Amino acid sequence: MTEQSLENKACGFTAIIGAPNAGKSTLVNALVGAKVSIVTHKVQTTRFNVRGVLIEDASQVVLVDTPGIFSPKRALDRAMVQAAWNGAAEADLIVHLIDAPAFARVLNNAAAKPQDKKAFEDVGRIIEGLKKHELRADLALNKIDQLEKEELFILAKHFEETGCYNNTFMISASRGFGLKELKTALAEAMPAGPWHYPEDQIADLPSRLLAAEITREKLMLRVHEELPYAASVETETWEEHRNGSVRIGQVIFVQRESQRKIVLGKGGQVIKAIGAAARHELSEMLDRQVHLFLHVKVRENWSHDRAHLALFGLEIE
Ligand SMILES: Nc1nc2c(ncn2[C@@H]2O[C@H](COP(=O)(O)OP(=O)(O)OP(=O)(O)O)[C@@H](O)[C@H]2O)c(=O)[nH]1
Ligand SMILES: [Mg+2]
After folding, report:
1. Angle at alpha carbon of residue 66, lines to 60 and 68, rounded to 5°
2. Span from the CA of 25 to the centroid of ligand 2 (angstroms)
């Protein structure tokens, strides 16, 4: 590497914060161009900070996907929200992502759903938090594929008046609208300095953790109605075989026997489907044959188990 190219390099952290379900993980995946963080249509999918790397020109932007910020009640929720604020405080740049259609529905009093009102309140809480911690952020209005143009400008004005934001972006993380402009702006905002990661590295989640997250995503997608947030997944064994395949053993922790029955399903059908979906995705990601073995265990207090949560870098009081 020449001295010239080193001088031009920039690298820093950009934290993506927002209310649950704003689309933070979708955005991080879209900016990285690969799946580094799991996504579902449910709130509180992301439980800990997940890093993904975007390279744009001479800049390496380390994106930090954070858990949604809301009013936490349980110890695990508090730890998740704390992790999000820590991610924001440590970052060179904060992007506050908004579910713009949900916010607009509340602002206009137009057919707002209960979850829209929750998101609206959470956004208020985040603005208070930014002020309290004396943090400035960039604003990104997301899901503009579902919003009229006029609405967008009303929203932009609303947020401008808070005085918390430098720049405003209007994007659709899932459709890719506005992402080119966002990438350029993030790259330009990073401080000069050497890159943190080798240029071919896009994520830094250990394989065991990533594998557990993939299974948790399939679990949430499959049984979220019956078992919203009562489960956690841990990779217990990881064996590389000489023929190139890998054998992964995981435990799904639930809090009650009734939940264990739900995850298993009649004749084990539900867990079979979860396992098949997870195995399929893992095989593609790892680019080799995966043998996945899932077990369901009842551990009433998994959400208070420090050792288990420490696997994800979460600390409870
Ligand atoms: N229509 C539309 N939907 C989107 C867009 N971006 C994300 N979504 C959807 O919004 C939902 C939530 O996405 P996530 O990326 O999991 O949201 P999150 O902010 O990471 O959520 P938590 O991790 O729970 O805080 C998913 O169903 C996404 O497909 C978008 O630009 N347009
Ligand atoms: Mg998320």
Report:
1. 150
2. 4
Count of other CB atoms within 10 angstroms of residue 99? 25
DSSP one-letter string for 171-198: -BTTTTBTHHHHHHHHHHHSPBS--SS-
- Do residues 292 and 285 make contact, with C-beta atoms less than 8 angstroms apart? no
What does the pLDDT look like over 182-211, one tens digit per residue?
Answer: 999 999 999 999 999 999 999 999 999 999
228 CB under 6 A from ligand 1? no
**Structural domains of the chain, with CATH:** 3-189 (3.40.50.300), 207-310 (3.30.300.20)
Hey, which of 17, 21, 44, 98 would you mutate to test ligand 1's pocket, going by the most ligand atoms within 8 Å of its Cβ?
21
What is the distance of C-alpha 63 from the center of its chain? Answer: 10
Q: To test ligand 1's pocket by mutation, which of 38, 174, 216 has the most ligand atoms within 8 angstroms of CB? A: 174
Distance (angstroms) between ligand 1 centre and the Cα of 28 equals 11
Span of 60-69, 207-216, 303-312 with lowest mean pLDDT: 303-312
Residue 234, strand partner residues: 251
